[in-house]
């Protein structure tokens, strides 16, 4: 039997929480590269919260995945066959090949990886899009100053972990929020946050207040939901709130029950001169070279640590993705495809 | 009978809409200036929406007025008697003397005015705090680019009028929102906005959409309320929202009925990379010299017009202030004290 390509397609749009039947597995012939193309064998697929948005038809910063299309996603691949002058068989590359085992590329989405320099999986996490989201969002928009307090949720995940560690490098206090004692231990002991708090604690809001005796200067928003409610009253005058994700509400369908919190938000925006700023990392692409250089150095110096949660087999991707939206991953979630 | 000083004190804190009995009129002896002080006779008192905040005990960017204290406010005054080396009897000054007919000053709150250069009342409006709020907020935070669409409410008021006219000077389109046909005519015909819309129209939201065929790039927020609901869906990617006031909700006591609009706001902050930024003008005080220079020139060139609504007698201040919070003024509201 000839080897075939496995692809995972978007079969239907989820209403609320995605379910396995939103995905369809298909086997197709492995394509042949045309002139100027390479054939890739996908080694690792990144699973990230933003993919929930791509499954919806709602207008967003990026186009939706169409029904019947391969699910999108960042990948680490090996060049199997090359008809492109810049790539040779055996090259390891970062690509944007999506949820499949093989893919063609014309090279425009590729970046060569050097496995000697760093494990290739880091190109999907701490040295990739999540790490860069943390770096650009925190430094450009959050602008933490020495002694200020930076709070971030999902602090055991790849964005939150980098936010807190970069905050510490900039001499700010880092308060991380995570779900459960194991993740909190990771955030405190491995990533070196000043404080780690479990948002499941019944006294979470009080614990956060106690952990931020001088208030909050930067809240790096990547979850939304009830963490926001605990953070909001603690924001200082001139606090900055970069917003890169709202994973706690991605599965919500709305309308949302009252009371209406918008007037209270705007009142504090006004009286505390708050800055709320949504962003996606590619807006700051000019900073990528600086990011690669600085982050690689911080990792080499042991000042930035990372944690990966690698699940086995492309077939596991839907379940792993659904679980991630509920916080069941432990660190950067990656699928080992082959 | 010797002339006495009339002072208007905060008698009690309003719950919701202020009423005349929140104010108390007292007659006190006219004070004598000590060494280094001047005695001022107040000519004009500025009435501004921010004063509603000072009447409340709630924490804000400035301390509340205490019960029994003179209500705060910007004033134009004449020096009656001076024991300060920099001031002489007859000088016209901008001061922060509050709701009273006479006041002492040690000079720290004073700025000399030249009645030959501009009518002294403009120091309370287009060449004063409201004009500077528009200038600094629009140029520093709003950053309108040629061809972009700038929307502002309370466009017949001193802040809104300046926002729209400065936007036009910067080659942006200015869409002004005001209450009623007379104010809309002022905004369109005198201030030269591209479009003026009446927020009382039953089809206001549709009219705003038609007036902004390319969406909204800058919404200068000074009112809140239902104008926000019409503006919000029209905001473009990377839209900027400087927030300097929320007059439509100052009299609200909350909690606010649902649905909860906060998750929808945050969703669009994220998917449209919006910037929401509260501010008060004094944060930008370094720009004041540039403001005085540029704004005076724009007025001299006829590129910025202004409208004043001058009411007679300090006794009228409470009613005029209460009316302003409901939009009953026509242009910058000023009390002619004497």
From TrEMBL, chains A, B:
Pfam families: ADH_N_2, ADH_zinc_N. GO terms for molecular function: oxidoreductase activity, acting on the CH-CH group of donors, NAD or NADP as acceptor. This is NADP-dependent oxidoreductase. SMART domains: PKS_ER. It comes from Microvirga tunisiensis. InterPro entries: ADH-like_C, ADH_N_2, ER, GroES-like_sf, MDR_fam, NAD(P)-bd_dom_sf. Residues 18-335 form the Enoyl reductase (ER) domain. Keywords: Oxidoreductase. The keyword tRNA-binding does not apply. The keyword Oxidoreductase applies.
